């Protein structure tokens, strides 16, 4: 029963949020839905009290809240106490910033966390998300006035359909702020597109010759309007940069990419020629990368010193498709290779360092080529940690992990083996690839290789207690005797120093100067 006491508590919760010590609201499960439903724009920071990045941006966030008062509401959610909200909105790292409008989640904010950048983002969000022409003349004027932009057009949208269209406008503007205009006509009769009906969504894509190509959104073929737009709007060939990376990382098709100082290089020109022969095939996209800017991306795909620095890379599967070692480069051979890629004839390459000649533990070294021999050894319980050299959390784990392996050996626990793999230099099987660092899996002896992902505390006590719970052969070990865990042997940078490095969430990061863009793990 909804009692008077419950009613008063609910009202008080909203009132309390509104009169916080600063202009940042404090949201809980009791007032969250009410606040996002009644406010036209709410910018929410999901944080953890122990998160250093959250603390670093707190003052700027407060200042933004004060300056944007009346235009947008800024709010905090402590994800460590509001676990239901954190789960509902898939919060996997801190801080996570999300924009809501009239109860609808519009987009994540992935920009810089300084005051000016956040204000610019919010001010852009306060602008009308689309044009609303009342008749055919108004529609034609909008099309004419935006002759150098792509257009996304619909009419008569209501309810959930309108919310999804509005969400798409924010997602697209976030990565292509000046490339699009959006139109939702009051009535379908205003729209000059053949066979256009109420509720249809069309993209009028601007081609290089100034003409427009009409592409209809097929809900059954595309996951969302936003994804449809991002894919359809991609140029046939352009530079892949930090700024437009999100256009490619969300795609389900591979990126055929070349790494050059500039695209005046003869090989790059050939790549562009091949790309222009394959437009809109829905099987691959093409781009080139400035090899002086995104150095670590080139290293990551294994093309650092390649004579022909071209490959295909799938962000969805973290898979590389490489040219043969004896590849004889020409327009014809490259086009043939791309055709084979599109036809599914090219298999992803396994990246691997050399198998070490000596590998006696206590922590066994795993490389791509030795994964099956060590990790899939059905006579042992094997715990394997995937780490990255630049990862601060990994640096903290390594001495603790070695301590665990040593202590288990001392105790005569012979059926448990601990292993570690440098994941940026070696590939795990697709189903076990690290999506963040460190990633730890446990494989029980005698079972099919359905590795369990470690979800315990990364202390020596926590790891051993977790192994005791999941092992194939029960054993006794008194973890109270372990004492303090060791610190990292040497200082390591927690964040990438080099622009374009992959960050701890497995994403392309900006580098040391933008370390505040990192997230701390949940």
Short description:
With 522 residues, this protein is an alpha/beta fold. It has helices spanning 4-18, 32-38, 52-67, 83-88, 115-126, 136-145, 159-175, 225-233, 245-249, 266-277, 295-300, 331-342, 371-374, 392-410, 460-470; strands spanning 24-26, 42-47, 73-78, 93-94, 96-101, 104-109, 150-155, 180-185, 201-206, 212-216, 238-239, 255-260, 285-290, 310-314, 319-322, 363-365, 381-387, 416-422, 439-443, 452-453, 520-521. It has four domains: 4-126, Glutaredoxin (3-Layer(aba) Sandwich), CATH 3.40.30; 136-233, Glutaredoxin; 242-342, Glutaredoxin (3-Layer(aba) Sandwich); 363-481, Glutaredoxin (3-Layer(aba) Sandwich).
Textual characterization of the structure:
- This protein has 522 residues and is α/β, with parallel strands linked by helices.
- It has four domains: 4-126, 3-Layer(aba) Sandwich (Glutaredoxin), CATH 3.40.30.10; 136-233, Glutaredoxin (3-Layer(aba) Sandwich), CATH 3.40.30.10; 242-342, 3-Layer(aba) Sandwich (Glutaredoxin); 363-481, Glutaredoxin, CATH 3.40.30.
- It has 15 helices and 21 strands.
- It has helices at residues 4-18, 32-38, 52-67, 83-88, 115-126, 136-145, 159-175, 225-233, 245-249, 266-277, 295-300, 331-342, 371-374, 392-410, 460-470, and strands at 24-26, 42-47, 73-78, 93-94, 96-101, 104-109, 150-155, 180-185, 201-206, 212-216, 238-239, 255-260, 285-290, 310-314, 319-322, 363-365, 381-387, 416-422, 439-443, 452-453, 520-521.
- The protein has a five-stranded mixed sheet with strand order 1-3-2-5-6. Strands 11-13-12-14-15 form a five-stranded mixed sheet, covered by helices on one side. It has a five-stranded mixed sheet with strand order 16-18-17-19-20.
- β12, α10 and β13 form a beta-alpha-beta unit.
- The longest helix has 19 residues, at 392-410.
- Mean pLDDT is 86; it is low at 1-21 and 490-517.
- It is found in: Endoplasmic reticulum lumen.
- Residues 1-21 form the signal peptide.
- GO terms for molecular function: protein disulfide isomerase activity.
- Keywords: Disulfide bond, Endoplasmic reticulum, Isomerase, Redox-active center, Repeat, Signal.
């Amino acid at each position: 029963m909804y009692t008077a006491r419950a009613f008063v508590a609910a009202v008080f919760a909203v009132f309390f949020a509104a009169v916080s010590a600063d202009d940042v609201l404090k949201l809980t499960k009791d007032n969250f839905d009410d606040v996002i439903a009644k406010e036209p724009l709410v910018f929410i920071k999901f944080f953890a009290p122990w998160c250093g990045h959250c603390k670093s941006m707190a003052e700027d966030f407060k200042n933004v809240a004060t300056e944007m008062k009346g235009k947008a509401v800024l709010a905090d959610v402590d994800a460590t106490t509001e676990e239901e909200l954190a789960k509902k909105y898939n919060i996997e790292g801190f801080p996570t910033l999300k924009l809501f409008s009239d109860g609808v989640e519009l987009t994540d904010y992935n920009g810089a966390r300084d005051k000016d950048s956040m204000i610019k983002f919010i001010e852009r969000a306060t602008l009308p998300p689309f044009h609303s022409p009342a008749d055919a003349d108004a529609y034609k004027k909008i099309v004419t006035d935006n002759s150098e932009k792509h257009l996304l057009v619909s009419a008569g949208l209501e309810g959930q359909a309108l919310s999804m269209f509005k969400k798409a406008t924010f997602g697209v503007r976030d990565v292509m702020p000046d490339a699009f205009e959006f139109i939702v006509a009051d009535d379908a009769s205003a729209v000059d597109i053949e066979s256009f009906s109420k509720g249809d969504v069309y993209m009028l894509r601007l081609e290089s010759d100034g003409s427009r190509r009409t592409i209809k959104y097929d809900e059954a073929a595309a996951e969302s309007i936003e994804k449809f737009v991002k894919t359809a709007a991609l140029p046939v060939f352009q530079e892949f940069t930090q700024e437009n990376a999100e256009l490619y990382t969300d795609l389900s098709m591979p990126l055929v990419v070349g790494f050059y100082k500039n695209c005046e290089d003869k090989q790059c020109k050939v790549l562009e020629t091949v790309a222009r022969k394959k437009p809109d095939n829905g099987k691959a996209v093409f781009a080139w990368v400035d090899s002086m800017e995104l150095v670590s991306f080139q290293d990551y795909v294994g093309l650092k010193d390649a004579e022909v620095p071209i490959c295909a890379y799938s962000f969805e599967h973290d898979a590389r498709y490489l040219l043969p070692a004896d590849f004889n480069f020409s327009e014809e051979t490259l086009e043939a290779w791309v055709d084979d890629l599109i036809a599914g004839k090219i298999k992803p390459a396994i990246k691997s360092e050399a198998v070490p000649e000596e590998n006696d533990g206590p922590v066994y070294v795993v490389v791509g080529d030795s994964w099956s021999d060590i990790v899939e050894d059905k006579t042992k319980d094997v715990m394997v940690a995937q780490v990255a050299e630049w990862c601060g959390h990994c640096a903290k784990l390594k001495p603790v992990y070695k301590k665990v392996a040593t202590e288990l050996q001392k105790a005569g626990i012979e059926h448990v083996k601990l292993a570690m793999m440098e994941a940026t230099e070696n590939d795990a099987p697709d189903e076990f690839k690290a999506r963040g660092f460190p990633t730890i899996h446990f494989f029980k002896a005698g079972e099919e290789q359905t590795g369990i992902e470690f979800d315990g505390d990364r202390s020596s006590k926590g790891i051993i207690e977790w192994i005791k719970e999941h092992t194939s052969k029960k054993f006794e070990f008194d973890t109270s005797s372990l004492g303090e865990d060791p610190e990292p042997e040497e200082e390591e940078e927690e964040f990438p120093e080099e622009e374009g490095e992959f960050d701890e969430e497995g994403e392309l990061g900006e580098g040391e100067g933008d370390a505040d863009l990192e997230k701390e793990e949940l």
